[in-house]
Amino acid sequence: MMPRAEMVHWWFATGFLIIGLLLVSEAVVGTEVWGRRPWRRYLWPGTCFLLGVLMWPVMTFFTNSTIHMAAHGAWAQVLMLAGGVELARARGKLHSQYWRLCSSLALLVSGGALLVHEQQHWLFARSAFLHHALGWTLIVGAVFPLLHAFRPRSFVAATGFATTFLVTAVLLYCDRDTAQIFGYISRNAGYPHR
Amino acid sequence: MRRAVLVSAALAAVAFPSSAFAHAALLHESPAYREELSSAPRNITLRFDQQVDALPNAIVVLDPRGVNLALRAHAIDRGLVAPLRRLPRGPYTVRWKALSSDGHVVSGVYTFGVRVPAAIVTDAVGAEGPTTSEHIVRWVYLVGLALFVGGLGFQLLVLRGAAPTRRFYLIAGAGAVVVLETGIVAFLLRAEDALQLPFRAFLYGDLSSIAGGTRFGQAFIAMELGFSLAFAFLFLAWLTDRVALLWPALAIGAGFASGLSLSGHSSVSRAEEVADWAHLLAAALWVGGLVQLAVVVWPLLPELRRTAFRRFSRLATVCVAVLLAAGTYLSIERLPHLRDLWQTGYGQVLIVKLALVALALAWGAAHQFLVLPRLERGGAGNGLARSLLGESAVAMSVLLAAAVLVDSKPPPRQLPQPTTAAHRR
Fold first, then answer.
1. Res. A186: pLDDT tops 70
2. B418 domain-assigned
3. Is A126–B17 a contact, with Cβ atoms under 8 angstroms apart?
4. pTM score of the predicted model
5. A178, B35, B112, B308: which is deepest, by most CB within 10 A?
6. For residues B98 and B46, is the Cβ–Cβ distance under 8 A?
7. CB neighbour class for A36 (10 Å; exposed up to 12, middle 13-18, buried from 19)
């Protein structure tokens, strides 16, 4: 049995929300305080890597269009890349701060995949709006890890990076056509089992 | 004021339901995918998860000659219907396209049969079968498989106890990435051939009938899931310096090495699938081990050269024995007559492959019987790294022949004679 598409989006939204909250916490207390308990350093990269692994089933089972499949495949890979690199930095396997550029690349690729995937203008439909909003959020968000690579102590870079994940989570939660939790189902929303 | 209007419009776009992220998806079709009907249907009906509009030639029903037997399609509530001319007995291909409510054209293909079994969707009318690009992609896939599975096998079975080097992780990791990427490309190439759509339309083509309804699609799903997990284990082994995590990576990689057996034209029985899997796994262990020996052990671990060479010779002997046994069995099964070997395309590719295998075996035998005794006597083994690379190159060319062979169709088997009783019926 396949879960509904919006249900899967919510699961991933929850993952991004967790990452965003962890990054906000780190930004608020500072990297030194955050790193006093070593396991904390693995939390957001580990979640990111896990989300990448979990994106592979989405890629293989949601094949109702080629572009969806390719986009989900790209997200799976960049999530694993960004999470893996940050895990390796936390573990001390990679030392250069410029490895942070992988997160920037991951956000750029993710945003690009969303924008290429959407061919309609912003207000054509809610889905089009969400695609554009998500795509540009991720592309603008790519600036923050870039800044962080060159200015590791920047508070703006740290909070901006965290906010990118929080906004992404909120936008993913907005995919909710048949969500009874919101109390209203459009007649255009499709069959209830979707 | 203008800003407020824009912000309100944006919030409204998010707040009010219209269509979800996904474009229109086909939920149900009648006749169903690969259904064998006892009588000709009057209509083709497609049901989607949202309202769709009919485009010109929205539903095309092709007989084996490529003649369209569908009349003009029209939209119904969340669906499309096309009346049909009278369909005689035979297999049919349905090609459809629909304009979904978000403005994207979604397309797809499926098959059914009237009083005959339906073809699989990758053999639909219009599909041309495997191309040179597919052969190359499959070869790259096999090389990646060898680097990943063979590399892991070498590390765990030959270099047991020695700490894995960074170069080992790079080679094995690159192999896993290649397997994942080429798996996606191979699937898309096969889907493109089945759908027969221009590139832009292919981007919105419905691949679900290929992913879920063909052996190739099922193999794709299994392989992608398996190798992504195996790659995660490999990464965690590197990250945590725990060699034990390489074992699940090897087990998963070896288990899913049979993806090609599942997807190829040639696999028929369960025994053949097992033989194909063993054949492929033995080849991967052999070729990947050779690469590790030449690229990792020789330049980086000189103190382990002799031990590694001796142990790998043993492993390679087992691999070659399995290769030959499984290969002989598969050849006998797939080529009913000896003359098929030179009279059919499948047989001719097999001859080329056998010639390359013979060359690789002769090279390996030279290493086994000439170089190994010299190393045992304390020789330096100068130039052996290059020789090992040469053997690897020949083995990889064997994989190229194997890639073409997997995509080729063996000659048809003679069907068993019907019994008298069945004949009477």
1. no
2. no
3. yes
4. 0.82
5. B112
6. yes
7. exposed
